[in-house]
Amino acid sequence: MAERDQEFLEFVVKGLVEHPEDVKINRTVDEMGVLLTLDLHPDDMGKVIGRSGNTAKAIRTLLRVVGMKHNARVNLKINEPAGGSHAAPTGSDWDGTHEVPVSPALKSVDEAMESLNL
Predict the structure, then answer these.
(1) What b/e string do you get for 93-102 counting C-beta neighbours within 10 Å, with b at 16 or more?
(2) CB-based contacts of 79: which residues, under 8 Å, 6+ apart?
(3) Per-residue pLDDT reduced to its tens digit, 42-78
(4) Which of 1, 34, 46, 101 to pair with 66, CA 20 to 30 A apart?
């Protein structure tokens, strides 16, 4: 398969984002298959994930098709950027000893992506 999946992901994601120079893809292969890990500019997360995660779900589906064509299982992990919406608060009340309060309606990127897997 020789990184065809990585090239495909790079092509699709760079076409969606405002900061294509910040798109970084790490490809690892193990007994479970191929894992593509995607790092983005914080402002581009919404464009790649899409409303209700639909864009990310579609990208994952297409990657699975690319993988099936080459007899490999391909998975995508989208890393939440350091400047993302779930970063630690910067106010003077933060002492580092307690959890960051998160609204019950908000999920981390990984939680949202896991809920999309059927």
Answers:
(1) eeeeeeeeee
(2) 37, 38, 39, 40, 109
(3) 999 999 999 999 999 999 999 999 999 988 999 999 9
(4) 46
Whole-angstrom Cα distance, residue 4 to residue 22? 20
Beta strands in the chain (DSSP E): 24-30, 33-39, 74-78
Q: Strands 24-30, 33-39: parallel, antiparallel or unpaired by DSSP?
A: antiparallel
62: how many CB neighbours lie within 10 A of its CB? 16
pTM for the full predicted model: 0.66
Q: Checking phi first, is residue 53 left (phi over 0); if not, alpha (psi -120 to 50) or beta?
A: left
What architecture (CATH level 2) is domain 4-84+101-116? Answer: 2-Layer Sandwich (3.30)
